[in-house]
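Suppose you are handed a protein chain with no further information: no name, no annotation, nothing but its sequence. What can you learn? This example shows the usual starting point.
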Amino acid sequence: MQKGSGFKQGTLGFLFIILAIVNLTANAEVQTINELELSTIANLDKAALNNDQWQTVLPVLGDEDHYFIATQAGKIYQIHNNQVSSSAFFDLKLALKNPNIVALTAITLDPNFHYRDRDGYHTFYTAHTEASKPSTAKLASINAEVNSLYDTVLVRWKVDNFRTKPLVSQQYEVMRIAIMEVDEPIQQLSFNPYIEPWHDDFGLLFIALARNETLKNEALYAGSILRIKPEKYGLQKYTVPTNNPFSKTADIQNEIIFIAGQKTEHFDWIKQSAYRLLVQFNQPDSSLLIEAKIGEDWREAIPQEKIKKHLPILDTKHKTLLYQGRDLKKLWGKVLHLQEKENDWQLQALTINSTDDAGNTPNISHKLINYNTNKQSKFSLHQKHNGELLLLEHSQQRLYSIKKPTAVVNNVDKKQDLPSSSNSQSILLILFCFVFILTGTYWYIRSTNTKKQGFFQQQWANFEIDMATKSISLYKRHNKSPEKNLTISSLICSEILLNDEVISTISADTTQAFSNELESLVLAAFGSEHRIKMINDKHRKIQLCLTDDQKQHYMICLYYRVGNIRHTKLKYQQVIDKAIDWQWLLAQHINPTLTTKRKIKVKPIPEKVVSPSEHKSVSVKAIEREVFEDNSTEATQDIDLSINSLIDSTHEAPSTTKSSIDATEENTLVADLDKLVMMKKQGYLSETEFNAAKAKILKHVAND
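A reasonable first move is to predict its three-dimensional structure. Written in C-alpha cells, the prediction is:
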C-alpha cells in the first residue's frame, strides 16, 4: 500500500512540475498580442451615402442574417443574406417632413419586434435632434427656467412588408426633452436583453441623456438615465413604471432612475441583475467604468467602491462593451474597447475586478486580422442581441463579425500571418509539454485501471477444507487442482475484508474470538453493502486474509464485481456463507474456550402427519433441501457440535402411541438430519462420519 501511495504521489508531483513549466511559459506570453479574425458579413459599397456616415448597426431580432444599418442623417438601410440594399427604406427627415432635423442620435428595436401577436411587432424607436418647438409639451428643468434652442425627440415607428419592401405605416412622438446644445441629446436607447417576457420590467425603455455643464445640478441634465414604458395609455404617449425610484421626489422627474453627475459615454447591462448597470464616464484626463444601481444619485461625488476600472487614456474616445456572448470564451465577462496603434487595430480586453490601473490581472490585446491594412481604417464596435461582437469599418465600408482565427491564408500579409521565431519556439514548447502531459496521464490512468481490474488475478481464488487431514487447500483462478496446502493448526489469524476494510478478525487473542453477536454484525455489514446500487462502475469485493505462524499472508479474493459484471464464480450469498462458516471453524481451533455455540437459523417444518409409506421419501428430500431460505420465519436453536451428542439426542423416549409416527416425531427426525447436513457442509464431519451418523439415526427410528 505504501509503495502504491508513493508511486501516486511521485506521479502527481511530476505532473505538477510539468504544469508549472507550462504555466510559466504561458505567463511569459501574456504580453504577446493575440489574434482575432474578422469575417466579412457584408460589403456596404453598394449603398450611396452622399457625404453621410454610418452610425450604428441593428441586428434584427428573429433573423440572424438580417440587419438594419443607420446613418447619422437618419437613413436606414437593410442588410439581408450578406447584401446591402442600394437605397434606404427609411429617411427620418422625409418621414417627419421636417428638414430642420440635425441628426439621428440613437436607434433601437422593440424587444417584441418578431412576435406577431404582441405590442411592439415590427416596431423600432429613434432619437433625433431638431430645432426647439416652444409650444410642444416636453420635459425640462424643474428648478430653473431656460430658453432651450433644441429638442431631443423620441419617436416610435411601425414597419409593414418588413421582409420584402419595408414601408413605415405608423409613427408617433413618444417624448420630447428640451436641451441647450446640439451635442447634449439622447445618446442611447436600450432595452434590457436579459429580461424575459414574463418579467414585470420587460419592455421598459432606458434612455441616456447627455450632461449639460451649466445645468449640472439639475437632475435631468446631470447625465441621467430615464426609464419608461413606450406604449400609449389613454391620452398618454408613454407611462412611468410605478417602481421608478424617484417618483416621490419633488425636484426629480419621475422618469429618472439614475443620476450620474458625469458625462456618460455608454451604459451596458450586467446579466446577473436587472437593476445594475455598467456605466462608462468620460473625464478630461481618463475614463471610468462604474457599476451603478437604479436609484443612485451621484451629483455630489462618485462612491469610490463603485469604481470598477480606470480605462487607458486614448486619443479617440471609444465606447466600451461588456462581452457576455459564447463564441469567444476567453473574453467572457471582460470589458472590450478598440484601440489603434500605427494603423493596427486591437481589441483591448479588460478585467473589472480591480480599480488599479496596472492591476494584478493583465489587460490582453487582441490583434484584428484579415482586413485591408493598406488603407486608413476606422472601426466602431457593436453587439448582437446575444452578446456577440460586430465591427463596422467606416472608411472601407465593411461589416465584420469577430471569431477565433482559422488556418492562415496564404495571400494575407506575412506580418499578420507568420509568428516571430521566439513565438514559434514558445508555441512548440507548449505543444511538447501538452503532448507529454497527455501521454503521461494516459499511461498513469491505464496502469491504475489495470491494477484495479487485475489485482484479483494475483490473489488466491478459492479454498477448500479437508477435515480428514485438517488442512486447507488454496486454488489459483481457473485451476481445478490446489497450488498450496496449509494445515489449519499453522494458521494464527483470519480476516474478512469487505471493499478493503476488515469487518471480522479471528485469532488467539481473547478479544478476537467469534460469537453469534459478531456474526450478526458481519452479516449487517454485508447487508448494508448489498443494498448499495452497482452504478457508475462501482467496485465490490470480498476477501479472506489468512496469516500463518511464519507471518506469511495469504489473500483470497472470493468475490469481485464491477458494475453489473461479476468476475468471480461464487455468488454474493455463497461467499458470505463460506466466509462465516470458515470463521466459526477456525475460531474453534485457535480460540476454543471463548468461542460460543453457533445458533443456526432454520426454516420450521409445518406440522403434518406422515404415513410410514411416505417416511423414506420425506427423509431423502429433507437432506437435499436448502438449509437457509430468505423468506422463511427465523427460528433459533443451539447446536452442540459434537457428533455423539447429536446421535444421542435421537434416543429420547418415543411417543406412547404406536399406531403411526406423529408430526412431532417426524419434525424431530428432519431437524436431526438437518444438523447432520449442516455439520458436513461446515467441514465438521467427513463423508464416512456423516453416513455412519445418518444410518444410526434412521436405524433408531426404524427400531422405534
